[in-house]
Description:
mainly alpha
Amino acid sequence: MSADTLTIIVSAIGVVLTLGASLFAAGAWMIRRIDERLGTVDHRLSTGIGSVEEKLTARIDSVEERLGARIGSAEEKLGARIDTAEEKLGARIDAVAADVTELKIAVARLEGPPRRLLVSGS
């Protein structure tokens, strides 16, 4: 091989190595830059999400407290209404039971043996 051919081959290898190294360096630089950008975006999103989560938690807690109070008062009202209805129904059932007892006595009198007149013996 002549010196010219050897010089061309060494130059080509040098160019290929230079281009490969520069592509590698450019790729590494892009990856590092993307990582930095994603880190800042992640930080901003986590901060924003954290504040939204705190606000939503506070709102949910307040709604839960209000609903709990409303449900509690409704439960008390319904309990009182059920108790009064139970008392009224109990009184009506007792009255019907008394009427049925009187009705049974009246029917027994009607169906019983005929009444005999007592006549004094003369």
